[in-house]
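User: Here's a chain of 154 residues. Predict its fold as tokens.
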Amino acid sequence: MPPPFPLPAPTLFRLAPAHAPACLALDRAALGGLWSLGQWQRELEEEERPGIGLGRGPELLAMACGWLVLDELHITLVAVAPGHRRRGFGRRVLVELMDHAALRGATRATLEVAAGNDSGRGLYGALGFRTAGIRHGYYRNGEDALIQWLSMKT
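Assistant: Prediction complete.
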């Protein structure tokens, strides 16, 4: 039975230090826990490390974070809550992060994606990322990482 009222549409927002507990929870649920709470707080405090969230009410549904280094955006993670995947949320936060970085002068973006992460590779490929190299055994489980690049110049 559907809820009596439709849920509000998720909204995009810039992640801030106050979002660190929600980021930690999503990180653990979606990525297995890459960073500690302290690391999240430091990440969200720095202007050169932008993060974009997609939420509905108090729930963080997706996030994308990166580091701005000169004219490059180094995308550090894209995460979508397991119960909300395959709805375009990852694409929304990633595109918003890249748009933010472009406004700050970024002309290229780079990231690493697990060789076996078909969903991630599909998303990044659809946005124009191309594989430029491999980091063998990069991940904790020994899986290779594909180094991907995108020219953000239009």
